[in-house]
Every structure is written in C-alpha cells, then in structure tokens.
Amino acid sequence: MGRVPWLLGLHVLTFFCNLSLIHGQCTLFEFPSIKNDSTLAIKPSARLLLPFELDIQNCIFNGTKQVTITVSNQNKGNDIFNDVCKILIHPNGTCFSFRPECKCGARGQFYLNKTMNTSDETLWKWSIGEGKIVPERKILFVMQKYAPAVKQLTFYSTTDNASLTHPLEPSTSVDIICKYDKGYPEASPAVLKYSKGMTINLAASMDDGNEELSTARFRMQNVGCDDMDTISCEMPRADKNLTTTLLVKCPPSLSAPDTPFVSHSGSPTNLSFHLSSYTKTLNDCKITMGSHLKRQSNNESQGEHGERTRSFVNNYTMLGSPPTLRLQLLLENVTQKDVGAWNLIVANDAGTDNVTFEVEIEILPQIIELSLDNSPISQTVEVNSSVDILCAYRKGDDPNAEVILRMATGTKLTAKIPAADQHGNNKIEARYTLESVGCEDSGEISCELPKARRNATATLLVKCPPRYTEEVVKIFPGIEGDPLELRFQLITHTQEISGCHVTKVSQGHHEDLGHRKTQTDEAPGPAGSRECRQFASGYKIIGTLPQGTLEIKLDRLSQDHNGTWRLNISNEAGSAGFNFKLEITKARQSAVASNNSGYVAGVVTVVIIIVVVVIVVRYRERVREMMQRYIR
User: Fold this and answer.
1) Is residue 6 a part of any domain in this protein?
2) What pLDDT sits at residue 199?
C-alpha cells in the first residue's frame, strides 16, 4: 500500500507532461544562412538551396500525429498562395518529400531546392499544418537582387593578347582589361580612375564568352614615364573594386621642397623628398656640396673641384609604394659648414636624376646661467634679506626673445637688461633684486626663454619654522602589534630637526605613553610631552626642499596609541604644531577564534568517525557470530 501514492503521483506527472505537449507550439522557422530573417536577395535564374530549421520536438505530440510543412509562394497581383512542395514528418522523425523542390536533411533540418525565376520574386510562406496544434508560419520575401563586383583587372599586350608583367618597357602599347559582374538590377558600366585624377568611362563592353561577366577594354598607346600611376576599376554600389599599378621602367624623378631644410647646430636633420620610381631599390644615393653648383643641360647637377660628398646608398628610408614614394635621409651633426646648397643624386637600373636643395641652421635662444647670490643651484637666506637673481642668455636668431623670471608662486619678475646687451648674439645678463624675502618666497625660481631647448631653475630657501601644509587632521588606521609609518607634508628650508615631541590629547589634559626617559639634545617640548624617539623608532625629513615629508616609524602598535595626538616639530628658525589621530584595532581575534573552532570541529569529526567505525566493526562481528550459530 505504501507504493500507491508514489505511482499515482507518477501518473499525474505523465498526464501533465503529455498535456503540455498537446498544447505546445512548434518553434518558428529559422533560416541560418540569412542574416536578415525576412528578406532574401538572389541572382536571377540562380539555383537556391535554402536550409531552414524547425524544432520538431514540440511539433510531434502524444506520439500519434504527423506534421506537414508546406512551402508556398504568392501569385503576383493577388494574395493567393500556391503550394510549391510539402514535407511530411512522422513522430519517429522520419521525413518524406513528394516534390524535388523540398528536401529532407538531418533531424530538424530541411531545404528548399529550386531555380528561382522572375516569377518567383515574391512572398514565400513556410507553414505547419495537420495535427492538434496552432499553425505556425514564416514569411520570407525573395527578391532578385545582388551587388555588382569587379572580378579582374589586368594588363594585356596589344600584339599577342598575353598578360604583361611589371614594369613595362617604355613605348609599350597595352590594353587595360576590366572584367566585372553588373549585378541585378544592372549597375552602370565600370570606370577607370587614376590616382592623379583622370577618369575614363568604360561604356563600350564586349562579351568574352563568360555569360556572367562583362569585359571592358581600354588601350594605351606608347606608355611613357608620366603614365605611371595607380589605376582602379570601379562600379557604383559594388561590393568589390580592384586596383592595380601601372609601372614603367624609367629613371627616378625627384622633387625637393621650395623652402630650405632648417636644422639646429650640432643636431641631426631629416631630409625628405618626393620620388617617382618603379622600384624602391636605389643603386646610388648621395648628396654633394661645393662652393658653386651649376645645372647641366642633361638635368644633372655637378659640383666643381673641392666638393664634399655624403653617401646614403645603404642608409636611406623609402616610404610608400611605387610609383609614389618618399625618400628620407638623415643628415647627422649639422654644423655651420653644412649651410648652403646641396645636390641630391639618385639612380636605379633605368637611369639617374638629381635635385638641388638648401640647408640652413637656426640658432635657438639659449639660457647660459641662473644664479641666486652667485649660487647656481640653491641659496638659503634669512627672512627679510635681499637676493640678487642673475639669468644670462643668448637670443640666437630670434631678436624678439625675452627672458622670463618666475617665482614658485607663479609671480613674474621684470628683469633689468643693460641697453648694450639688447642687440646681437652676445651674452645678455638679466638681473633682478628680490627685496625683503619672506617665508612664502621659498621655492624654485625659473628663468624661461621661448624656443630654448631647456630652461634653468634654482631653489631659494628662506629660514623659517616648518609649516604643516595639509589642511585636515590626518587619521592613521593600524592593527595592534603591527608596525606603522606616519607621513606628514611640510614646508621647510632644512632636513635638520632640532626638536620633535608628541603629546596625547584627551579631554583637555595630556597623557604620556609611560615609556622610559632617555637623554637627548632635542629642544624641550610642551608640558606632558615626550620626545619623538620615545614615541617612535625613528623619524626624519625626506624630499626635495622646500617641500619635505616627515616620516615617523612605529615598530609595534598598542591600544595605548589610540586617540588624538599633538606633534610639535622644530628647526633652527622655530617650531610648528599640529594634530593627528591613531585608530588602532585589536589583533585578529575573530580569525584566531575561527581557527580554534575549526580545530575543535575537526577533532569532534575525527572522534565521531572513529566511533562509527568501531560500531560498524562490532556489528559485523555479531552478524558473523549469528551466521555461524545458524549454520551449526
């Protein structure tokens, strides 16, 4: 009797499963080969093998009914659909088709196999019928349309109609052949486009025996060096156009910029030239310079006796693709003797060419010296003293170059320049006297010159008490027993510390740490305070002055460190005080307790396992004894 409820539940479950299949719907048709699941574009008179998928698992219900898939298309001019083919699917998955337009594939896969004509450019419908299910259908619009494409672009000899290889010899006659598919609807004929801007319409086309492709021909008589170009065969709306290059075996053709190449003394200069050539390889590449250069009638430049030559035949860079190239040369360590006219000569297998260019040197403004009271790096002065600032520089080729003196605060200083130093490329000394300096004047003073390769800086340090620069009370979290490093940002003229004291602040009175007292040379601190060396293992000021960082290291934190502290730090000019807070949490007792509880749980588990094993062993022994007694 105990099994009856269980069997009853099984029958109820089976009933509901079958009921869900009876009312379940077939999944919509899917066309895996079509990106747009509503439109299919095909070529005219093309054979279409269109796969479509159907989840027949939900279509075969109760194991008794068959499923019929009907493929139909709509008559043009009305809404009537005519059946094209049908597929019959049995519950066991067996598939039958009685017309060749429909084919069965793997389970759940089927195909429409038909040559599409103009009349087939209409709506097609896939539907499911027969069986107690809600009919499902899928509408697909089949249209005869595809994009044009250029298939081939080649050069042919006009004499033997054979394809030609590059580069062509000068005076060769050549046919440019472009083969293309017009697409559907047919696109406009192809055109030839030259990168130099010329366009040739290929309206006249001919049939070369290929029904799918059209062939257009353009004849070029006696090609020359000027005919080298990149040529493309293009069609509107084309998925693919083709490009080729017409190369003629000609000498290189150079062109130089109209303006001189400008360099700075002692620096390298990049020389860049436009070059037209059928190849990137040069047999010769050199520049020459003489006292005079003259242009010969054969388009060659030749220097007179005593000319200088630099060869680049193994050290040039060629950018781009033939025939449009850019030749780059690196002229190293340009000096005053390199100023003037140069002649560049290049050669390939077909000949040589040369071009004249100019090199000039631009002398940049230069800062020579910056000093504070004759100190070139830094100077430490008393408050209210005066400081003489000197910035020596040269204007170079820029007569309008003016030096700028700038304080660390951003304030610009108007320097005095002697009238005799206003002109020429001689050393100019700009001077300024900073009167009655204050603590806020500490910092870098810069001497700046537009276009100069570098500016100069010097540091002014004013003897002032240290100043804490952070506006908030810093909070340092820590864990009991761990070390901790405290860092504070200061403005100070020195890294020397004459006094460092800490005082614990608690409800208006001070609490010390109870550390032992030691002898020290530090200045005395506030009442109830302790020296930093009693509070920490070490302290120091680091960084580039006047911006400094005070580091205080605590070796081992305790609960006594918790709370707000007052730090007083002193140098030779005075002292400063500020508060900070330590938040010390107890050691990770929760983790320890967790480890202990885990240990106890492990021990208990082991004991339980041992007890269970003992019970099982004893039970088996008793069973064995009873069996032996029974046998006897």
Assistant:
1) no
2) 82
CA distance 235 to 150: 7
Q: What is the DSSP letter of 323?
A: T
129: region left, alpha or beta (phi > 0 left; psi from -120 to 50 alpha): beta
Residue 387, both tokens:
């400081």
Sheet harboring 123-129: ordered strands across? 39-42, 137-144, 123-129, 67-74, 81-89, 95-97
CATH no. for residue 216?
2.60.40.10
Tell me the residue type at 377. I
pLDDT exceeds 90 at position 276: yes
**Coil, strand or helix at 440:** helix
What radius of gyration, in Å, describes the C-alpha atoms of the chain?
Answer: 47
401 and 495 in a single domain? The answer is no
* Integer Cα distance of 42 and 37 in angstroms: 14
Residue 493 three-state SS: coil
Pair (502, 551) in one structural domain? yes
Distance CA(357)–CA(345), nearest Å, equals: 11
Task: Tell me the average pLDDT across 354-368.
Answer: 90
Question: Which pLDDT value is given to residue 398?
Answer: 80
Is 608 within a domain?
Answer: no
Domain end (from 429, 462, 495): 462
Q: Are residues 321 and 278 in the same domain?
A: yes
* SS3 call for 35: coil
**Confidence band (pLDDT; 50, 70, 90) for 294?**
very low
Task: Look up residue 11 and give its amino acid.
Answer: H
Q: Which domain holds residue 99?
A: 26-144
Tell me: do 324 and 385 sit in the same domain.
no
The H or E element that residue 589 is part of is helix 589-631
Instruction: Name the more confident of 417 and 222.
Output: 222
Q: How far apart, in whole angstroms, are the C-alpha atoms of residue 446 and residue 448?
A: 6
Residues 555-584: pLDDT tens digits?
988 888 999 999 999 999 999 999 999 999
Phi, psi of 543 (to 5 degrees): 110, 175
Which among 86, 121, 144 is the end of a domain? 144
**Ramachandran angles phi, psi of 256, nearest 5°:** -110, 155
Q: Which amino acid is at 150?
A: V
pLDDT digits (tens, 9 = 90+) for 75-119: 777 778 888 888 888 777 788 888 888 888 876 788 888 888 777
CA distance 334 to 71: 82
Task: List pLDDT tens digits, range 17-48.
Answer: 232 333 345 555 677 777 666 777 777 777 78
pTM (global) more than 0.70: no
How far apart (Å, rounded) are the C-alpha atoms in residues 541 and 534? 18
